[in-house]
């Protein structure tokens, strides 16, 4: 079935309180929902009429359960499964969610109040996994769910409280060389950044202004020279009702990054924040697990390299040229040279200079490269100039095109045309073969780990993929299937998902690709 992507329902008062959902407890607020409410497109089947059922995620599936009664016991953001059944009892399901709202305060304790709100980007994308802290007369913490909602309950009235969000992970989320180009255009006066939130995102070093130093700091992050923002956090949060006195200078006065509630008297449901991903000026950061990555490629930007046979023990200079360099604003990529077949002994710079390279993983045969030229014209005499050259030493007799390629392992491979369009990146060898980006499975981070680890992988095109976790005996512990966006994807695993410590293995499978890596869960 095809589900509607979420519905909101409002609990209605139950007067007098009664057990409306059959769990043995009296309910003060309730509302019924039906499986048919979530069907975006009705289905037909040759075996007879299709019927629908609904259940909470994790509950036993019952084909005859056509509706649910939601009460104050349900989470504010509730995941549900919608099943479609044919006449032979065959079924399939889609997953969606319900926002359970209590605007009538049916669930409120007469002696306590609650504070709730949403955390979203300026384009209203909910931000997931934000750690929200309540301090004051009471202390609580919670993480936002996929809808960006937070809720603190059971708070005594008559006291002061403070709400403070924090989210300082995955600094490269949404950050590319295109954001660096936008910062440079702003600094040069070519194209000013168009919102106060984006200006805050461009202030990489958090000094209250946008300068060339912000571009320098961002490039170091893109190239993995720096692994996090040195003077900033990954996200900042501004109360949604805050009005900047001067939107073109959001630092004119110190803007708040928390919400103070003085003398709480009643429940508050709209204490919202605008989330700002630092370094992300084109709002490409993935804010939640339900958000699809938009990646519409408009052609390819190719680096030209002369292919040749390499002899073991011999050194070579490999020139990288780009015939279409005048047609792009910039590009980024990871060069991948098989470290068992050859090693890089030096880099000679041309149009791309030392600041455009990250060499943290050079011993693994990986070189990060980020180049851009806002405001700088390249004349026709230089369009076929050497971008850069690698001096390599062969360790085996092998053909260059068999061991050199483009990857997204460190820095994702992409380029940007003069109309801000996104392009693929590859290497064109003089033999006509093309070394392009392929599916890649990355090592989990951190590894070893105790509580949580992240597994990343790259898909050149969006599609279905399966990640399986298994032990040394081949027993499958967890299976994750899904449809993933093109580009870099990331899945998070928790200790509770795995059950036991020791050496585990994870395997990524697509239609044409299978790879396995090892990880270690420690006590």
From TrEMBL:
One of its GO terms (molecular function) is hydrolase activity, hydrolyzing O-glycosyl compounds. CDD domains: Dockerin_like. One of its GO terms (biological process) is polysaccharide catabolic process. Coiled coil: none annotated. SUPFAM superfamilies: Carboxypeptidase regulatory domain-like, Type I dockerin domain. Pfam families: Dockerin_1 (PF00404). Gene3D superfamilies: Dockerin domain. InterPro entries: CarboxyPept-like_regulatory, Dockerin_1_rpt, Dockerin_dom_sf, Secre_tail. This is T9SS type A sorting domain-containing protein. The lineage of its organism: Bacteria, Pseudomonadati, Bacteroidota, Saprospiria, Saprospirales.
